[in-house]
Design goal:
Length: 679
């Protein structure tokens, strides 16, 4: 077995590999850029080597720099994680030339499957169902339009070397094809150094289901069930689960056998994933093969008891698979929520900055990859992360903060466990998608399993403003808030000296006002306290509230009517900001007289920004397409901002004339910085 491996990656996947290597008794080497000098993966590894400036193109994907780190540390093998150099055949060749083991598949398999055009041809020859499309390269936008017309709209424009949603666009007409082709080429060039494009038919109402495979170097191959990855936004997976709520055993077997056959056709050896599009009749079509570990691999580990990273290491060491297909057992259900540094209230635009608070829910300590989750208890919580409280989220890399996973014997139990874990996950200092993830978990279509890759576009067509909680939940929140407010008031009066000889000066009657997205409620509360808690009557309905909450705690876990409710709590004047199940609420707890007077207070008018183009995210100005004095029309491109490897086109919302240009290409911009002013 290897004595030392280098992880040619960063963030949560580097930390994930280090954990398994440590358990196997293998020393680890981390690499890091200037931006990651204080990163978690650097402190976790046994050694760390600096490899360059923050941009990945100058550090993490520079083969010579990684090779120098290998040579200087004496690492015997390299795990590439995902992204960066993980599917770069030149990197695998460089390792092979130096006698360094690549913890991944052979070079030939990477070349064959890493190119989407070539992989589709091989899949078709191997008898795997494929999506109709144009398999040759496309030279320019006009040729893309011609091909798209021949295939028939809608079509998917895809970068041949793409992945992770980068370099992909759906085109519904000629204009989409022209613009999407160029934008996808630009993204592909920036992210992968390869701007080749191809086009395929976009299957409407599809489900994205993928098969996890393991193959060794001795001709053995198995599939470890499937993962449902249909909850996507801009072709980027957001929620994954295993198994799929849609597949039957016959379809699962057929997809798995085709996936293994394809792998064997290219001499595959390592962990890999074969992705399929599945329609409503369970017809499935090959999309691509990812010749690496997938982001969502934890859900497969949770239901199969297989540590995929360990198996990748053992396969690279020449060992034989310890399992046959008959040994594979799917146990229970697992859900993964990807926590991104993306602000859902700003159309999921990237957010950067310092994590002033980062408190994940407690993991299940009895669980470890390589064991069945069911051995650890009725539910399991796992959080794969690469950040820590006080750390920085950089503009240079992928916006993922963590992958929160839950396991339970049934799908609904796993979803409920996820909802509760998300409620207990505290993240402050940056915009993030926790509230959106909570809303997805409670959505009736998701809970029923009736989902497609269009779920987010269909269910949130106007973006996300927060969830609307049912009346019974608002009543429980009001009871909890009134009880917490009473505790805070008692402490305040004691500190101020107003409570003399235990005389009660804190009232029993309160008015709880709740304001949030499409929510406005005013609830009368009466509190009857006792040593064990309080009975809070909310508009005639009695709730028993028990809590160990202390003023200043930012996470409140209370028992209301015998069941726990977890809320993120921030103290504000006369109440709280409460976040629960995707809702962000302003909850004021007032005396009846205060409530009367509050209604007379004037409402603050927001500043008028209608004549300004504000930067929607921290990023780099790529270009400005207009000049001072120019007349623009609605929908016209004004500027392009790059953030976290994605190009974002800013368009005019209405016609107008540019009066001032405040930014130039190359400028680094902050959120809400003024780019353009209009007359």
């Amino acid at each position: 077995m290897f004595g030392k491996i280098l992880i040619a990656n960063r963030g949560e996947i580097a930390c994930r590999v280090i954990k398994t290597a440590r358990r196997m008794g293998i020393a680890t080497v981390a690499v890091y850029s200037d931006a990651d000098a204080n990163a978690l993966h650097v402190s976790m590894a046994d050694e760390a080597v600096h490899i360059g400036p923050p941009p990945a193109a100058e550090s993490y994907i520079v083969i010579d720099k990684v090779m120098d780190a290998i040579q200087s540390t004496g690492a015997q093998a390299v795990h590439p994680g995902y992204g960066f150099l993980s599917e770069n055949p030149k990197f695998a060749q460089a390792l092979e030339a130096e006698g360094i083991a690549f913890i991944g598949p052979p070079v030939g398999a990477i070349e064959a499957m890493g190119d989407k055009i070539t992989s589709k041809k091989i899949a078709a020859e191997a008898g795997v169902s494929t999506v109709p499309g144009h398999m040759g390269l496309i030279e320019d936008a006009e040729e893309a339009v011609k091909i798209s017309r021949e295939i028939g709209y809608p079509v998917m424009l895809k970068a041949s070397a793409g992945g992770g949603g980068k370099g992909m666009r759906i085109a519904w007409d000629d204009d989409d094809a022209r613009e999407g082709f160029q934008a996808s080429k630009n993204e592909a060039k920036a992210s992968f150094g390869d701007d080749r494009m191809f086009i395929e038919k976009f299957v409407t109402q599809p489900r994205h289901i993928e098969i996890q495979i393991l193959c060794d170097r001795h001709g053995n191959g198995i599939y470890l069930g499937e993962r449902e990855c249909s909850i996507q936004r801009r072709n980027q997976k957001v929620v994954e689960e295993a198994p799929s709520p849609f597949l039957d055993e016959g379809t699962r077997r057929a997809m798995g056998e085709q996936a293994v056959a394809l792998a064997k056709a290219v001499g595959y050896a390592s962990a890999g994933t074969v992705e399929f599009i599945v329609d409503g009749d369970r017809n499935f079509y090959f999309l691509e093969m990812n010749t690496r570990l997938q982001v969502e691999h934890p859900v497969t580990e949770l239901i199969t008891g297989v540590d995929l990273v360990e198996q990748m290491i053992r396969i690279a060491n020449g060992e034989t698979l310890p399992l046959t297909q008959d040994d594979v057992r799917l146990d229970g259900w697992a859900i993964e929520s990807r926590l991104y540094a993306e602000d859902p209230y700003r159309n999921f635009l990237p957010s950067i900055g310092r994590l002033t608070r980062y408190r994940p829910p407690a993991e299940t300590n009895a669980y470890a990859p390589g064991t069945f989750a069911s051995e650890a208890g009725d539910t399991v919580i796992r959080n794969d992360t690469g950040v820590f409280e006080g750390g920085e989220i950089s503009m240079f890399y992928d916006p993922m903060i963590a992958k929160l996973c839950t396991w339970a014997p049934t799908r609904i139990a796993a979803i409920d466990a996820m909802s509760d874990a998300l409620d207990r996950f505290e993240v402050e200092g940056i915009g993030h998608n926790l509230p959106f993830l909570s809303t997805v978990m409670d959505h009736p279509k998701f809970r029923s399993g009736d989902i497609t890759t269009a779920f987010i576009a269909d269910e949130f067509p106007n973006g996300f403003d927060g969830s609307v909680l049912p009346v019974d939940v608002l009543s429980r929140i009001a009871a909890a808030a009134a009880a917490m407010h009473r505790v805070a008031e008692i402490r305040r009066t004691r500190v101020s000296g107003r409570m003399d000889n235990h005389e009660r000066v804190v009232g029993d009657d309160w008015v709880v006002g709740i304001r949030g997205h499409d929510t406005e409620a005013e609830l009368a509360c009466h509190i009857a306290a006792d040593p064990g808690g309080a009975t809070v009557t909310v508009d005639g309905t009695a709730h028993r509230v028990e809590s160990g909450w202390t003023p200043g705690d930012t996470l409140a876990i209370l028992s209301v009517d015998g069941s726990d409710i977890a809320m993120k709590v921030d103290k504000v004047t006369h109440g709280f900001r409460i976040r629960h199940r995707g809702a962000d609420l302003s909850v004021l707890v007032l005396s009846p007289r205060q409530a009367e007077l509050t209604k007379l207070m004037p409402v603050k008018v927001e500043a008028d920004t209608s004549k300004l183009l504000l930067c929607p995210m921290p990023g780099l100005m790529v270009r400005v397409d207009v000049s001072e004095g120019e007349r623009v029309e609605a929908g016209q491109t004004l500027a392009v901002i790059e953030a976290m490897k994605m190009e974002n086109v800013l368009r005019a919302e209405r016609a107008g004339t540019v009066s001032k240009v405040n930014a130039a290409p190359g400028d680094s911009l902050a959120v809400d910085e003024v780019i353009l002013e209009f007359e």
